[in-house]
Structures are given as structure tokens and as C-alpha cells.
Amino acid sequence: MTAAKAMTLCGLVLAGGRSSRMGRDKAALVHPDGRTLARRGHDLLVGAGCETVALSLRHDQELPPGFADLPHVMLVRDPEGMSQGPLGGMLAAMRLRPEAAWLMLACDLPRLDVATLSHLVTSKRPAEPFLSYSSEFDGLPEPLCALYAAAALPILEQAQAEGIRCPRKLLIRHACRLLKPLTPGALDNANTPADWTTAITR
Questions:
Q1: Global pTM?
Q2: Which residues constitute the domain of residue 61?
Q3: Residue 45 β-bridge partners
Q4: For position 91, which CATH number holds?
Q5: Could you give the CA distance from residue 25 to residue 10 in angstroms, rounded to a whole number?
Q6: Three-class SS of residue 32?
Q7: What is the pLDDT of residues 7-62, one digit of tens each?
């Protein structure tokens, strides 16, 4: 049995951002395939083999549309009055299943595919606490389409204790191994209306 098959795999869709540059909730944007970005992210994680998939939301955020057929979807909420960025949601999820590896996924990746996620899972080496892709734009880690092993939990907790809120800085500090993107453009995110238009039309 390979290490990839042996590990328990969970997934998290990070959908609690304020979407200030987009001007509306990115998690609720409807992809050309008819699913909201939050639901599409959920389904991609299931397709990549995650046995449990959770959504990270703000404490007062409504569940994005598209989950009527999944009444018991797992939610991970930020503490009331606090926003710790994606690292807070990642930690909250990992503490629910500390024995598992977690595929962490930003909801605003409209061109992401299952193959990109599955490649992370099958490429993971047993001793690695995390595995990420390199950005096509600057070569730096893509921390919100990455695999975090159970061994990453204390590393994330230490980073939070030190006031580090940027997962990218964390991966850089710990020399995370980076894979080359499998599918060109799969990790392009949509932060603005122009980004969104480009992502769904090209």
C-alpha cells in the first residue's frame, strides 16, 4: 500500500473571505458548469479522494448556495469578531481531524481540476509535512491549493502563536517542496470582476 493510499484524506474549501475586490461573495459566484464556486470546490475535493470535506466560513456568513442536496455539510467558522485569515480556518479544520492529511483549497480557483488535486496526493512523500505547487507568476508556493499532512498541524499552530497569518510565508520558511503546475492556468484565482471574466471565457 502506498503512503498516498494509506493516509486519511480530508478537504477544506476556504470560502470565508470578504471578497472586497470582487464586490460580491466569490463563494456564491456561479461557474459556467452551473455550480457555485464553493460547491465546485467541494466536489473537486471529493473527486480527489477526500473522505470528509468542510467549508471554512466567517462566523456570520450564510452557507453559499448550491448545497441543498447536502444538508449536513461540515462547516468551520471563524470565532465571532475575529478574522485570522485562511490560517485560522485551516487550523480549525485540522483540529477536527488531527490524524488526517488535509487538502486546502481556496474557493476562487475557477479553472482548477481534479487532476491537479490528485497529483498533490499521489506526489506526497511520507516525511513531508506539506506539498504545494509553484505559482506560474512568481514561482512562490501556492498555499491554498496544497496538501498539509497531520505533521503540519503543530507547525501551523506555532506560526499562529508567532503572529504569522500568511500560509505562503509559512511554506517558504519551511522549504516546502513545490510541484510544477500540472494544468496550465488551473491555479489562476479570480479576485476581481475582470479576473472572473477572463477565467470563465478563455
A1: 0.91
A2: 3-201
A3: none
A4: 3.90.550.10
A5: 24
A6: coil
A7: 899 999 999 876 666 666 788 899 999 999 999 999 999 999 999 999 999 888 88
